[in-house]
Automatic annotation (TrEMBL):
The gene is Gsta3_1. Residues 3-83 form the GST N-terminal domain. This is glutathione transferase. InterPro entries: Glutathione-S-Trfase_C-like, Glutathione-S-Trfase_C_sf, Glutathione_S-Trfase, Glutathione_S-Trfase_N, GST_alpha, GST_C, GST_superfamily, Thioredoxin-like_sf. Pfam families: GST_C_3 (PF14497), GST_N (PF02798). It comes from the Eukaryota.
Amino acid sequence: MSGKPRLTYLNGRGRMEPIRWLLAAAGVEFEENFLETKEQYEKLIKDGVLMFQQVPLVEIDGMKMVQTRAILSYIAGKYNLYGKDLKERALIDMYVEGIADLMQMILMFPFSPPEAKEKNLDSIKERATNRYFPVFEKVLKQHGQDFLVGNKFSWADVQLIEAILAVEEKVPAVLSGFPQLQTFKIKMSNMPTIKKFLQPGSPRKPPPDDCYVEKVLKVFMK
């Protein structure tokens, strides 16, 4: 064993992408095992590797971890990205959960039927500009620091920069009314570990296309 975390998922974003982001932001190298067939997935279930018969699966510190939220909170705690006390952790949890709600819409968008895509895209834009991004614009302005919690880089910052870039792929001008978030995006994108992750050839996955949707349906659907 190399000692590097080993990630098992499809070769695409999905529920593994925030995990890749968090590990990369922490400066942690990892290995990936890509599921290509339903048989590979069913073998993991048969072998008892997946506690709830679901991926993502992350093998780290001798554990076979499942459930995205549990994996993320473990990584955040392990690499000191989870605040200095319970109050900071509670703030990080609230911010992360809010961002996750927005990211769920983005996660499901590629699976929309063609006739619903425009409506669903409008929903993403509306939620981002009216519900989620105003919260973080206000937090950054009132907090007066570079980061969302305390004055230290945390899991919440990683989730937010991932969400900003994901929404911008679909709505390029989404930050036009959010000057604090524009500044935040530039600062986060230039942090060395994140800058490296944003370069071509990194483990960051491209936006999901029809081939990815087809692969998801092939591997996971009964």
